[in-house]
Specification:
By secondary structure, this protein is an all-alpha fold. Helix content is 66%, strand content 0%. It contains 8 helices and no strands. Helix 1 (12-29) crosses helix 3, helix 5 (90-103) packs across helix 7 (118-129) and helix 5 (90-103) packs across helix 8 (136-148). The radius of gyration is 19 Å and the shape is elongated.
Length: 150
Amino acid sequence: VISKNRLPITDYRLLSFFITGEVQKVLNERKMEIEQLPVKPKDLAEIFSLIKEGIITLNLAKDVFTKMVEEKKTAREIVEQRGLKQITSKEEIENIVKEVLKLHLAEVERYRKGKKGLFGYFIGEVMKKTKGKANPTIVNAIMLDILRET
């Protein structure tokens, strides 16, 4: 039986990373003590629920957290109001990947000739184009498939 007070978080490493990174950063920047933070544990848990549900990425979660502190709104409110839902449509992502690769034909040729380090560059360009909203796992898979085509 799960207590009503227990947070619905199973990825404690991610939680630890988020607290020692993002939460501590906000506390330091605003010269606050943890007790003064307007985001309570249940609110923080909501961010992780959104990540687990595939609605937002970890990078978007960082922005959502900052907005939660500034605006004193819930994570879901911020995601809805700002249109921050993650792009998970394979068709939409495939179109974006193809568009990015068309803009960088010289780099694609260099990649196919062995400059495999450009893969990260292409991923970065897709993420820039989608403002970090594209599901990175789907982007990677589609990018690999397209770049393997000859």
